[in-house]
Amino acid sequence: MKKTISYLLVMGMAVLSLAGCGKKIDSGSNVQSTQDSTNDSSSVTIKAVIKDLSADDEVSVKFLEAVSSGVSKELGREVHLELAPISDGTYSESMSLLLQSGEIPDLMYFQGGDYQFAITQGILEDLTQYVNNSTNIKALMQPYNKERLENYPYLLWLSPDRIKVPVVRQDWFDAAKSSKTLLDNPTTDNYKAFFQELKENNNLKAAYTVPGDIAELDTVFNLAFGVKATWIKEGDKYVYSKVTNAEKEKLAFYAELYKEGLLDNEWLTKKWDTKESAFYNGEVGVVSGTQGSVVNVYNNKMVTQNGENAKLVILPPAKGAAQGYTPGDVSKESRGWAISKYSDHKDVAFAVLEYMAGKEGQLLDKLGYEGEEYNIENNEIVLTDKISEWWPRFHESIANFDAPISSKTPYFSEAALKSLDMVNTYSSFDNAFVIPDEYATNWDASQALYIEFAADVISGNRSIDEFDQFVADWNALGGAEITEYANTILK
Predict the structure, then answer these.
(1) CATH 3.40.50.790 applies to domain 164-325
(2) Which residues are the signal sequence here (predicted)?
(3) Contact predicate 287/279, CB 8 Å
(4) What's the pTM value of the predicted model, to 2 decimals?
């Protein structure tokens, strides 16, 4: 009911705004027409913080000049994008230090650490009205984007959902007698049989590896064991999924994979780079990668190193109590664009995002420059080798990207496109919610307890028979209190 009321209010506000207004907006509360915006011909500078862009980097400077030029033409006024300097260190920490200093850019990209500035300090603008009155951005919005914006209207991130899918080499998959059975009926037993054959056929160290945690295993097996969401309904109450019998059975299965050498015995110490190297070098057979762009990178690197026959196959999620990849968390965007509530140029800051979601902006964002990352031949875009060094700085979504790219140099490989289709087929929404500040410390402690217990069980250092004691410890550490709170907001 709460979401329904919120949705109706948002739609009602959008209708009122659109009754006498165009697509451009001036602020979150005062919507003005396109004519009003373009009539202001004064020059404006938009201070921005954008991850991986630097004022000292020639590529960054050239890109921002191109964006500024495009937005200027779109608005009919001179717009300059200027990077605000941030300190060294992790990106989220550097962003936090910048904002705490009192320097608040007009346009900001967050990758964590946004909650305190949106909710506690209240310095981020509600983007609901901007999106409702947009054209290009609204065309790229997917159901999960809409849910997240409704729940947390301070971040905008137009990208395929960050759901991971398991991948394996085509040549190895085709050579395995168990592969057809796996596709036809991907039960946990059939997955295990496939892992065993894959390891034996190719003399692998392990069938599957992960970078230090089990999230990439969970994307395949969670739903099969009945771990269908963060909070699971048992009777008339919600319980945390990681303290259920379904979780217990799943961890016992992972421990079997580890004991039999099917799960990499070095999984706890693996990092992203060593995981990927083990995959390309033929030490392991299966890894998981984020649908779309990451799968595309994995496929291209695998083909470059091992030949065309080694292109990737996307594996289905295991089937059991249910079937699906990891449900998407729609409580909020985990990263994305924000606008300062105190900016004098909110309309122009949003216009940057709107332009980059349009045809010209997407072409620049995704493909770079003609004569460098691509050429035009017979009215088609032919990508050059330099495209491998280019990535979207604003919007990764390809939902409305219809550039005439030659089939000889596709933007995404078959594997990447298949990963998007598979996630679309096997996707669902999670019921996770943002943990309030008063529970955050206990929640972090309870998560650390689970991570330690799961690692010990999988690696054979503790017995799964100690699961009930883990549950008792989890509840005593604050889990019981958080569960009680969860039951007040989940319906």
Answers:
(1) no
(2) 1-19
(3) yes
(4) 0.85
Provide the token pair at 72: 């200027």
The SS3 assignment for 483 reads helix
In the structure encoding, which two tokens stand for residue 329, read together? 């968390």
Q: Tell me which residue of 352, 399, 359, 429 sits closest to 160, measured CA to CA.
A: 399
**pLDDT tens digit string along 251-278?**
999 999 999 999 999 999 999 999 999 9
Task: For residue 376, give every residue at least 6 positions away whose Cβ sits within 8 Å of its Cβ, in sequence order, or none.
Answer: 370, 382
Instruction: Confirm if 336 and 110 have CB atoms less than 8 A apart.
Output: yes
Query: Look-up: residue for tokens 């300097």?
Result: 85
CA–CA gap between residue 244 and residue 242 (Å, rounded): 6
pLDDT tens column, 299-321: 999 999 999 999 999 999 999 99
End-to-end CA distance of the chain: 9
Q: What is the pLDDT of residues 309-354, one digit of tens each?
A: 999 999 999 999 999 999 999 999 999 999 999 999 999 999 999 9
| HEC secondary structure over 59-83 | HHHHHHHHHHHHHHHHHCCCEEEEE
Q: Which residue has the tokens 């004022």?
A: 55
How is residue 119 written in tokens?
């909710």
Choices 1.10.600.10, 3.40.190.10, 3.40.1080.10, 3.30.565.10: CATH for 44-159+332-361? 3.40.190.10
CA distance linking residue 124 with residue 343, whole number of Å: 10
Give the amino acid at 487.
N
- 73 Cα distance to chain centroid: 32
